[in-house]
Amino acid sequence: QTERVEAATSSDIDPNKTLIVYLSRTNNTKAIAEMIQKTVGGKLVAVELQTPYPENYQATVAQVAKENETGFMPLLKTKIDSIQKYDVVFIGFPTWGMQLPPPMKSFLKQYNLTGKTIIPFNSNGGYGIGSTFETVKQLCPDSRVLEGYSTRGGLERDGQLLMIKEEKAKQTETEIENWLQKLKII
Ligand SMILES: Cc1cc2nc3c(=O)[nH]c(=O)nc-3n(C[C@H](O)[C@H](O)[C@H](O)COP(=O)(O)O)c2cc1C
């Protein structure tokens, strides 16, 4: 009987009601987003800005530092139609200045995620998630925020762009499957 209950509660997320939204500059977080979609299904959406960040890495770092300081939230070009139809929202982002990137703060502020299940994921340059997952929780006080996934991506500062490829991609895929199983998503 126990078994039947477990089978009924696990893996019943509906791909039609699943949104995977991510921010990615050098495609590491995008690679994770695509792996999640391959495993779970759902609608994949890249967050784009009305005014994109500079191509130049140092200029971007400086701009983000300023935005983090002032709490500035950039306007998004990306629009989600009918957010209300999604029950589960995966939210992916790199670590920027050890914080949640400003565009993701914009996203979480802009959309009403009340009652939804939020699942964060992250790539970073090796310094970890910083305050990112904590900020997601703070900005989604009326959502169920599940345990996030994080892995090392690139380090643009040192010329490392897309690093989630080849062996690292295979390893990441396995980790993502284990994580989603643990969360009873698959
Ligand atoms: C503006 C900026 C700030 C960053 N700050 C950090 C940081 O504080 N800690 C860290 O580990 N990596 C940092 N990184 C590196 C990224 O988190 C890392 O390269 C990540 O994998 C990039 O993801 P993406 O390829 O999806 O853009 C920063 C990168 C940029 C562009």
Largest sheet: 6 strands, parallel
Structural classification: alpha/beta
Distance between the termini: 21 Å
Shape: globular
Number of strands: 6
The Cα radius of gyration reads: 16 Å
Bound compounds, please? flavin mononucleotide
Organism: Dyadobacter psychrotolerans
Keywords: Signal
GO molecular function: FMN binding
Pfam family, one: Flavodoxin_4
How does this structure look, described?
The protein is an alpha/beta fold. Helix 2 (28-40) crosses helix 6 (166-182). The protein is 37% helix and 16% strand. It starts with a helix and ends with a helix. Strands 1, 2, 3, 4, 5 and 6 form a six-stranded parallel sheet that branches. It is globular, with a radius of gyration of 16 Å. The protein has a single domain, classed as Flavodoxin domain (Rossmann fold). Residues 1-10 have low confidence and may be disordered. The protein has helices spanning 2-9, 28-40, 57-70, 102-110, 132-139, 166-182; strands at residues 18-22, 43-46, 88-94, 117-124, 144-145, 149-152. The chain has six helices and six strands; from the N terminus they run αβαβαβαβαββα. The structure holds flavin mononucleotide (FMN). The site of flavin mononucleotide has 25 residues, from helix 2, helix 3 and strand 4.
